[in-house]
Write a structure and sequence with these properties.
This protein is α+β, with helices and mostly antiparallel strands. The chain has helices spanning 8-11, 47-56, 106-115, 131-137, 198-215, 235-241, 270-288, 303-306, and strands spanning 18-25, 37-44, 61-63, 70-72, 77-84, 91-94, 97-101, 150-157, 162-166, 183-191, 248-249, 252-254, 262-264, 297-299. It starts with 7 loop residues before the first helix and ends in a 14-residue tail after the last helix.
Length: 320
Amino acid sequence: MKSGKRNLVEKLSGAEGLSFLKNFPLSSLTAIGTGGRARYYASVERVSALQKLLKELDGPFFILGSGTNLLLSDRDFPGVMIHLGRSFRRLRQSEGKITCGAAVPLARLVERAVAASFAGFEELSGVPGSVGGAAAMNAGTHIKELGDLVESLCMVDTSGRRRFFSKGQLRPSYRSSLAPVPGVITTLTFLRQPGGDPERQRGRALELQNGRKLKHPWQEKTFGSTFKNPPGMIAAKLIDQAELKGFRIGGAQVSPKHANFIENNRGAGALDILELIKHVRRVVRTRFGITLEPEVRLVGFTREELGELAPYAVSPPGKV
């Protein structure tokens, strides 16, 4: 960090809307229950504070949203975990337009959009996480992804500059960030499209939500889908056909309920879960000649721990 890691808190202590906690435990903030301590945990309440923070940072940092789609190493995180606070949970609706903060739960956006007959949002019902997290990986289903619905995006890049991108400038590819440049997404806008029908949409949303409750092991500690679906295939079916449901390493097991989910139901450490991911990947490749690509973000592991998964890992970034 430009001012030295020990001086960061002192240098930014006067920034309004920014607070720090030192040696902050992270495991309770991740859906699967892994993680060590963050050297600094920064809670951000203003875009201006986020700008100041990113401008000063040149060491490791990570944006911690709702904690889904994330496998965090149990070793201590050597930099700053950034959390967007309540001011980023604002959701405003005007005629034909929704403006949504990145920390808004995706479920809340879906509910509001469906009630206002914004067509397409019903297909995202039951998808976990925050809106910003969903934008950072273009979350969705085989029918609809968030990127299909976004009209524009505001963010702060890693130099601390505010940036605005219209729909045509975004990158809506499968399970990749919509943002064209690295940084932190702060706000997204959505426009009402024709074809909305609140009654029909609510019925569809309830159908999908109930279906996911039946199929997915949300009562267990799990980060969500482990692998991306290969083109024209379904990862869960491949794992099921490889007879891996219920397979366990340490406290982690392939969910008996849905093969593309991993459950932490016996106090698994992050390395147990990582080894299980690698094992499933090897078995599927051996059986079917298909190499599964992780959908879950792998953060804080060494190259040796990751092995063949190293190219897919999210390194503790500095200016990423």
